[in-house]
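User: Hey, my collaborator sent me this sequence without any context and asked if I could get a structure. I don't really work with proteins. Can you help?
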Amino acid sequence: MPTPAELAAQAFEQLQLPLPVPRHSPDVRLPDGRDATIVGENTWIWTDRGVWHPAVQRVQVGPVWAEVTATPVGMTFNSGTGGSMTCSGPGTPYDRSFGLHAASPDCGFVYTRSSVGQPNDQASAEWAIQWSVSWVGSDGTADVGGDFPQMQSRARASFAVAEVQALRAN
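Assistant: No problem. I've predicted the 3D structure and written it out in structure-token form, which is a compact way to encode the shape of the chain:
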């Protein structure tokens, strides 16, 4: 009969983590049809909240079982043009009620250069959710973050980072 710790290792291997669903704003459409954000503008970064929940995997053999739980603890954004940042949560979806040019309250990035010169003149940005892993077993054993390393689930999105010129009337 396997031990709860052995079943926990098996559950850890079987664990399926939700992938981030990359979202950003501004998300403008260029004349050539590509999605883009804008140099120097506050770009809001977030993932759909539907993926921001614990993932659980349970393995049982007879009366012996173990349950592994991965809990999202943060998200990293790699801009695809040389900058990155870490957010403590899934980010806040942009809404016009926040106002134009407003900074995200919890997960924002400002691109300092365009994506011209990158492959397809686009940034290939990455959203990565960090997961803390713990487990409990049928014999009362439990471990919070000791036996298993922190995990990550990643997703990419490509979009242009465009420079815009504004005219100002005096």
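In plain terms: DSSP finds one helix and eleven strands in the chain. You can pass these tokens on to your collaborator as they are.
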